[in-house]
Amino acid sequence: MATATTGFFQDRPTLLNQYDGNSALKKVAEFYLSHKTLAAVLPELRELGDYVISKEIFEWQEDAETNIPRVEHQGTFGHPKNRLIVSQGWKLLKAKAFAAGIISDSYERKYAEESRVVAFLKNWLFSASSATVLCPFAMTDGTARVLEVFAKDDERLQEWYNHLVSSDPTQAWTSGQWMTERPGGSDVRNTETVATSSYRKEEGAESRPNASANNQIENNATSDIVTVGTGPKDYTVNGFKWFSSATDSECSILLAKREGETGLSCFIGKLTPETVIINRLKKKFGTIALPTAELELRNHPVILLGQANNGVPVIATVLNITRLYSSTSALSCYGRSLHIAKQYALVRSVFGKKLSATPAHLKTLAHEQVQLTGLMFLLFEGISLLGQSEVTGLSPHREAVLRVLPGIAKAYCCKKATIGCSECMEALGGAGYLEHEIDINIARLYRESQVNVIWEGTTNVLSDDVARVMKGKRGPLMIGAFEKYIAEVSSDQSVLDEFAAWKKWVEGMDLEATRADARNVTYKLAHVIVRALLLRNAVKTGDRVDVEIAERWKNADLSGDAEYDSEILYGQKTAKL
């Protein structure tokens, strides 16, 4: 007879080092990093792989998700305070992420063009345990790149840049990215925020904007002193931003229309409670530790980035990076969910047999592992191309591929990952639906994954961008760029034939038909790229599991030889050969 404290108790799944215990991550690390770089960073990756499943980080995460952000709008006597309060756990998670080099590795460029891959390997490891703290990091990374490209000669902004790329938690800043307003999110044409020039044409002012502005805008990002610069790039903005997912940041990049103009310009400014008023915090399905707010901008001092009325191309630099972060976050949640499901299958018995020895269960989880592996290669291909573009440069056709690959990866990876998290939750039965213990809480991972399908462009928005690019004026050049790129990745005839069929299909449709079927256009192109990458990896390693995974991607259901299922999931030691 059982009681509440006696009888059968199910053993918990044991989480392994998240680098060594995730074969998909190890495969992309070994594929995209040279032997020298991998040997240099492997100790860091393994150390982080242990830390992200440590008691300490789960305590911080639990604190961040229990003591959720709140706003003190007024003091005792009604005086406005506009004070955002976040948990200690949230602050500690941010500090740890800074110190881990998740942003700084990409800008120190210790590993040259491979630095982005190193940074995103850490990102992937950390994300599933981060309470979504890497959302602000995504925008920070993108803003840092904008300043690196568009503000090299501005002393003020180079100082800000140094804060954004710092690995010292006492010096590091995060940045927001404010685009969404009530008239639209991805469609920013109806932006209502207005920028008014504060330039004062005093004698000699034109020749000394940086020097004067250094004294006019305080260097301390949390200062209560609000001073408006008077250089030719200084403005104040007024408007209302509907979503801000980095409300506790020190600065933010944003879009606004200059007074009397219809074009969008890109600006950056420090956050001060006097000029950035929190209207309310959003109640959300997930990401509850992340302070997402509606903000009113009141004479908020900002600095113009790039050319006026050219804001979208400037902020697009941010979007390519944030879309890679979204895909990384989704696949990190997917990878952690699958890891929990795999480990649970080793300890759970049904009808006298471990789930790990049950063919139907093995088949289901092997499908998820094969899918995760392919998606990881698609994501890290975009990351690798970005790193090469920033350091050594890319050939014109590969630069064209990079223009849309982060969006393709986000549309495909985030959608598949979210469905995959649900499948992994189901693999634990009723236990998968419970949220008692944060380290094995797949429900939380599912919620965190879901947001990545939406922000930085929904699946339809991103797919529509792909369709419009492929059918626009430069469409033939873009399709030709992909054709050349895929042929470089793999010479396998079945891959070349698959791309040729995609090309013929797309070229045979007009713009409206392509846009109507944009998801399929995007997904089928993503599938070709994944197959090409997996086949190249299989040729490189000669490993029979890599060959089997590449072969399974030929099939719509990713099915294959059942004899490989256990080996795909657990490696050769536990495989039934």
TrEMBL record:
<dbReference type="InterPro" id="IPR009100">
    <property type="entry name" value="AcylCoA_DH/oxidase_NM_dom_sf"/>
</dbReference>
<protein>
    <submittedName>
        <fullName>YALI0B04906p</fullName>
    </submittedName>
</protein>
<dbReference type="InterPro" id="IPR052904">
    <property type="entry name" value="Acyl-CoA_dehydrogenase-like"/>
</dbReference>
<feature type="domain" description="Acyl-CoA dehydrogenase 11-like C-terminal">
    <location>
        <begin position="509"/>
        <end position="559"/>
    </location>
</feature>
<dbReference type="InterPro" id="IPR036250">
    <property type="entry name" value="AcylCo_DH-like_C"/>
</dbReference>
<dbReference type="Pfam" id="PF22217">
    <property type="entry name" value="ACDH-11_C"/>
</dbReference>
<dbReference type="InterPro" id="IPR041504">
    <property type="entry name" value="AidB_N"/>
</dbReference>
<dbReference type="Pfam" id="PF00441">
    <property type="entry name" value="Acyl-CoA_dh_1"/>
</dbReference>
<dbReference type="InterPro" id="IPR009075">
    <property type="entry name" value="AcylCo_DH/oxidase_C"/>
</dbReference>
<dbReference type="GO" id="GO:0003995">
    <property type="term" value="F:acyl-CoA dehydrogenase activity"/>
</dbReference>
<feature type="region of interest" description="Disordered">
    <location>
        <begin position="174"/>
        <end position="219"/>
    </location>
</feature>
<feature type="compositionally biased region" description="Polar residues">
    <location>
        <begin position="209"/>
        <end position="219"/>
    </location>
</feature>
<feature type="domain" description="Adaptive response protein AidB N-terminal">
    <location>
        <begin position="17"/>
        <end position="167"/>
    </location>
</feature>
<dbReference type="InterPro" id="IPR053998">
    <property type="entry name" value="ACDH-11_C"/>
</dbReference>
<keyword id="KW-0274">FAD</keyword>
<dbReference type="Pfam" id="PF18158">
    <property type="entry name" value="AidB_N"/>
</dbReference>
<feature type="domain" description="Acyl-CoA dehydrogenase/oxidase C-terminal">
    <location>
        <begin position="309"/>
        <end position="470"/>
    </location>
</feature>
<comment type="similarity">
    <text>Belongs to the acyl-CoA dehydrogenase family.</text>
</comment>
<keyword id="KW-0285">Flavoprotein</keyword>
